[in-house]
């Protein structure tokens, strides 16, 4: 049942991901697309002065009074700057007896300046919580890998310690000022729009403008997007993700149902069918024994005793119940079937051991039928058979 449970859990998780991706794609398709010239009026006319989900396109600039970030290797100022420093090394795995690559993060820092979205020359929106947005891809402006210096002594010590340094990897990514982005989220009036910004408090390099609106993560649970690509690509990615998760859920659900059906069959249905077949076999055997005993009793030429009739019934093939038992099954040594049925069997009907050879008991001397063939190897079987035949031939023909 563990296989069915695991597949069922994966199918449930896939269904959850499919439902989430399809919901996100539906929200993107139904997002409000309002002309920028009418956006502020639409927000003021909306209930609670809020548009729950809207698409806004514009250019990224620093917020009022904010100084843009100066990246070390960027050619333009930025509003988001991320610096990642990682150490690459090789560690010796004692269990697998091999060297495996490992990465250790030394530093991972992200700086964010207040961000405004300029949709029109006179329309500015404050961008709230940009790092929580989905699809925000920073542009990589610097990447350098510095290999670690090594000497012969250090190399030997690293091998003994089980750790070899490869080098330091430095990556710098930014969201530059002037980048065109598309933001999908909740649009409201900026609560700080009424606060005047003093010209003396603003540095000379800071931006001076008024943010009338604010775009923020939706309150209805929809996903918050900030992307540098077109909205159609974002919607296509969500639909593709939903399609993949849907088919993954179907495949694992099919496996879960198949495994559960097999477990149900093997634990409950097959034992019931085997018990029913065994009961029908015993009833058929009793019926044939009674019929054979009745035939022997009504025969005028031969009227055996009850014990003789039972012995005659016990000498019938357990498979067809018609022919005499004249086959010895090896390696178990049971004599329970006729030669015709024994050639079709793969396992002994009594002990269920595999059948490797079948001997005809009619052509064998009676001394060989008294031998316990079980547990004998091929060499022992051949040796015992030849020895018994030699003794039998000596008794039949003393010469």
From TrEMBL:
<feature type="domain" description="RING-type">
    <location>
        <begin position="317"/>
        <end position="352"/>
    </location>
</feature>
<dbReference type="GO" id="GO:0061630">
    <property type="term" value="F:ubiquitin protein ligase activity"/>
</dbReference>
<keyword id="KW-0833">Ubl conjugation pathway</keyword>
<dbReference type="GO" id="GO:0005741">
    <property type="term" value="C:mitochondrial outer membrane"/>
</dbReference>
<dbReference type="Pfam" id="PF12483">
    <property type="entry name" value="GIDE"/>
</dbReference>
<keyword id="KW-0863">Zinc-finger</keyword>
<dbReference type="InterPro" id="IPR001841">
    <property type="entry name" value="Znf_RING"/>
</dbReference>
<protein>
    <recommendedName>
        <fullName>RING-type E3 ubiquitin transferase</fullName>
        <ecNumber>2.3.2.27</ecNumber>
    </recommendedName>
</protein>
<dbReference type="InterPro" id="IPR051652">
    <property type="entry name" value="MDM2_MDM4_MUL1"/>
</dbReference>
<keyword id="KW-0479">Metal-binding</keyword>
<dbReference type="InterPro" id="IPR022170">
    <property type="entry name" value="MUL1-like"/>
</dbReference>
<keyword id="KW-0812">Transmembrane</keyword>
<dbReference type="GO" id="GO:0008270">
    <property type="term" value="F:zinc ion binding"/>
</dbReference>
<keyword id="KW-0472">Membrane</keyword>
<keyword id="KW-0808">Transferase</keyword>
<keyword id="KW-0496">Mitochondrion</keyword>
<keyword id="KW-1133">Transmembrane helix</keyword>
<dbReference type="Pfam" id="PF13920">
    <property type="entry name" value="zf-C3HC4_3"/>
</dbReference>
<dbReference type="InterPro" id="IPR013083">
    <property type="entry name" value="Znf_RING/FYVE/PHD"/>
</dbReference>
<keyword id="KW-0862">Zinc</keyword>
<keyword id="KW-1000">Mitochondrion outer membrane</keyword>
<dbReference type="GO" id="GO:0016567">
    <property type="term" value="P:protein ubiquitination"/>
</dbReference>
